[in-house]
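Example pasted here:
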Amino acid sequence: MIRIRARGPGRRLLALGLPTAWGALAVTYKLGCPLAQQNGLGARIATSAVFFAVGTGLVLHVRHVLLRELKQVREVAGAAQSTLLRPLPSEVDGLRVAAAQLSADRGAAVGGDLYEVVATEHGVRAVMGDVRGHGIGAVGTVAAVLGSFREAVHDEPDLGRVLRRLDRALARHLRERAAADPESPVAEDFVTVLLLEIGREGEVRVLNCGHPWPYRLLDTRVEPLSRAEPLPPLGPFPLPPELPAVACPSLRPNEVLFLHTDGAEDARDAHGRFFPLAAVLAAALGAGARTPQALLAAVFTRLLRHTQGAPADDVAFLVLRDERPRRRAPSGSRAAARSATTCPQPTKHL
């Protein structure tokens, strides 16, 4: 639980007492000091110096109070950040992991993007999501979706049932928001979600609700994990009765999945050009960036340069590199794996 320490009575009295004392000093000088009643040049200079000192003291005191409050707000935001988007371990069940996010709200430590990676008995499961809007206003929705995911991935053996749990959690959160603030436009809110499951032998299963497809990286090749039509985002539309996960070709040893939110590829430079994420990834691979941390650093550096340090939307990246040893597969299985080059195209759900 995040607690904000309230000011004690002494600190409140001090905050009010100092400006009052400065003001009382100025009034006392003006009304009671004989020098302040004179009209000579020296008297005017002395009076101006007194009031200048009083004004300077008030400005410095207000500045000190504001800086202290800003520090406290940042500490609370940092605590919220570590609770919602807690730092991921560098390794999860044989997968090397790196993640980072950048809020579009200047000074905010949290935003509308979410990610998580969890090792379960059903495989390593990851989520990447993007809440409509950005910054502090999206934090409640991020908390509802992430909290549901962290429970459901252990309870539900089927990826489709995990997605339904997230959908129900989001619906409850939006109903509670509507009840607390009837003027809040909750009917317009939605969340894009990508659910990813990676088995022990690199098997990849995905459910995508309106989210950008991750990129597969191997050697210097960069290609989308799938080109299948995603489901609609969570929120505005009900989920279809059947939710078959998209089965993609298995990850090969040292192959990388690069997950991202649409704030990356939608980022524009001063001339209105979009950020070329795929080309930047290819260039990073060509320059020798192979680890998730190196890829993340290369992409973030280019993104900040592209947007001049001020992206218009929240941005999040999640990088997974499969470093697990493989069992020797039968020749027939290897041939079947080589023949699978693209993910199957599921039926479109409107």
About this structure: The first strand starts at residue 91 and ends at 92. The chain has a mean pLDDT of 80. The two ends are 40 Å apart (CA to CA).
